[in-house]
Fold this protein.
Amino acid sequence: MGVLVGKPAPKFKAKAVVGNQIIENFDLDQFEGKNVVLFFYPLDFTFVCPTELHAFQEKLAEFDKRDATVIACSVDSCYSHYAWLNTKKSHGGIEGITYPIISDINKDIARSYDVLHADEGVAFRGLFLIDKKGIVRHQIVNDLPLGRSVDEALRMLDALNFFETNGEVCPANWNTGEKSMQPNQEGLKKYFSVQS
């Protein structure tokens, strides 16, 4: 797996579904100036996947508060996405999801983000935090059976926003309102002296 952190996020134009509308030319560039949480999932109409899509939807207002756009992507067609969006949650569907779901039918996007599972032909559960300038600032990739933590995605977004606003770095397990530190030896000493 390649590491994209610190590099420009690979650009793409693809079909996507937003609500009940199919978008022919969905372009990552349209989100310049906003943080983007782009996450890949293996397939529509599966098992762990709808739990993740609903979990992101449940916290969508929290992402909005942080000026971040959530985008999902899988190797399914936009027609499969559309059908899944019109399937009730109680039947394993994702009815009610309002953020964009990209169709990566040619698997080019998964390849460019280096999350394509070559043997299965689907994407691993990759998540990428892309900053307002289009740079990847955080990535995590889970194997197919391991669902992600939406709260952790929010925590990383908070850490990025805090760093960009204050210039201080965020130590292990940092959450909003907790102690940060100056990125130097004195800052580290001060941080540990307060923790002791």
Q: What stands out?
A: The chain has two domains: 1-147, 149-196. The radius of gyration is 18 Å.
